[in-house]
Amino acid sequence: MGLTDESNSNRSTNTDSRSVPISRSTMIFAMCAALNSCNLGYDIGVNTSAGKLLQESLDLTNSQLEIFMGSLNMFAAIGAIGASTISDRFGRRGGFIVAAVGFIVGMASMSMANSYTSLMIGRAFVGLGVGFGLAIDPIYIAEISPAAHRGRLVTWSEIAINVGILFGFSTGLVFHNLEADAAWRIMFGLGAFLPLCLIILVLTVMPESPRWLVAKGRETEAHGILEKVYPPGYNVSAIVQDIKDSLEREKEAEQAVGWDVIFFPSPAFKRMLIVGLGTAIAQQIVGIEAIQYYMLFIIEEAGVEGRIEQSLVLIFLGVLKMAVIIVAGKLFDTTGRRPLFFASLGGMIVALIILAFSFLNEDGGSATVGVIGLASYLCFFSLGMGPGAWLIPAEVFSTTIRTKAMSMAAFLNRIVATIMTMSFLTVADVIGWSGFFFVLALICALVMLFLYWYLPETKGLSLEDMSSYFAKITWDRSILEAEERLHGQKAQSCSGTTEVPVNFAAVA
């Protein structure tokens, strides 16, 4: 394919970036942004624990429960489309606030719902908030992170999702003695706490994205924020100039405006979109969210009964999954993106086959084998497909298209999640649990082939290098010629002095 060799030649110029340490401020900003992902995780975890209680309390059918579970992703898809407008106009911080408000209103509404209709209204607000947040969270972290540590820091979003899932799982154990109607209401109501904390952090701690500030002509503010992100004495002026050059290069190469840059891309931008959007779709088409929402059903079908026992199994699986993500976050910046994706998908295929065989028995699944299969699937997913599916879109989309493309990625990710979640129980009833897991194993194999052919290695590349990198691997002359003209203009501006080229990949 040539992708690996070409990426290696690019990375040979980026070794200096590894000497840039992660500042305390960068870690704080990334942690605050990752808290936003806790909201989605909490929703997954609390609904996994409360789904059966909700069905019992409001006398819901399986179809109504499927619609309730899956509708969050449908509303999130709508929210994701609007995220780019909010993020581009009001900044990344504005996007975080909108996402948190939607989540607070939705969770409060659901906790007070007395009918299926009022329950779904609250679900709509939660979904919109999740959609706004999913598209903005990885962008913000990627835009404040040094290139050498971007993989680790962006994966904090996935870690935060699993922290939220654990919180949600734990509520099932904490309130196991309460009656069903009271338990799920309290569990939903507690979901308003995390987004309230996020709003406070956005207003008091988190700065705006320096790349958004440069795009808006507010270079002085961007310079001040970058001084907090990078070590004392670091030449952050070069980074600001690099961002400006990147924006100029991309705008010159892409004469289209608005959404035309997405729908009528040049070869390099087209490849970015195939990689970024394809990876976002792949994350959900392997069935992760559907399995997480209905994990309690799978565990019960496998033979684990009793609310306490089920909650303990859920918490165990959540802790295991989070531990693997923490390890994966470090490996992305050392081992690279491609190896982790392939190891992840290969392990998921084996785990799904184990799950399928555990349910071949007509009397039901084996509890031990079923839990082992689930644990293996979640661990291997968390090794690559989980954190990597948001890392890749956040870094491969160039500055010109980043917010629009990330909105599209989140939209497609949520649409696929909606289809998978809304059809999970129905498909499992038709072809059986065993057949369903065999189908997911086949899908994982197809995803592996897609990533093998299209996913380049981007470890160590700066965000501003992405357009040039994709131009080289697609032979996109429009961007390469724009880069040559830009360098020519800079050389002329030196008034006869010799210009020493800045290794932007090393500093950004």
Could you give the topology of this structure?
Blueprint: H1 3-11, H2 24-58, H3 62-111, H4 116-144, H5 150-154, H6 156-174, H7 180-189, H8 193-204, H9 210-215, H10 219-229, H11 236-253, H12 260-263, H13 267-285, H14 288-293, H15 295-302, H16 307-332, H17 337-358, H18 367-396, H19 402-454, H20 466-474, H21 477-492, H22 504-507
Question: What does this entry look like structurally?
Answer:
The longest helix has 53 residues, at 402-454. α13 runs antiparallel to α18 (367-396). This protein has helices spanning 3-11, 24-58, 62-111, 116-144, 150-154, 156-174, 180-189, 193-204, 210-215, 219-229, 236-253, 260-263, 267-285, 288-293, 295-302, 307-332, 337-358, 367-396, 402-454, 466-474, 477-492, 504-507. The chain has a single domain (23-474), classed as MFS general substrate transporter like domains (Growth Hormone, Chain: A), CATH 1.20.1250.20. It has 508 residues and is mainly alpha-helical.
Please give the CATH class.
Mainly Alpha
Total number of domains: 1
Helical content stands at over 70%
Remind me, CATH topology? Growth Hormone, Chain: A
Q: What's the name of the CATH homologous superfamily?
A: MFS general substrate transporter like domains
**SSE run:** HHHHHHHHHHHHHHHHHHHHHH
Give a short summary of the structure.
This protein is mainly α. Helix content is 79%, strand content 0%.
Labels describing this entry:
globular, mainly alpha, 508 residues, 79% helix, 22 helices
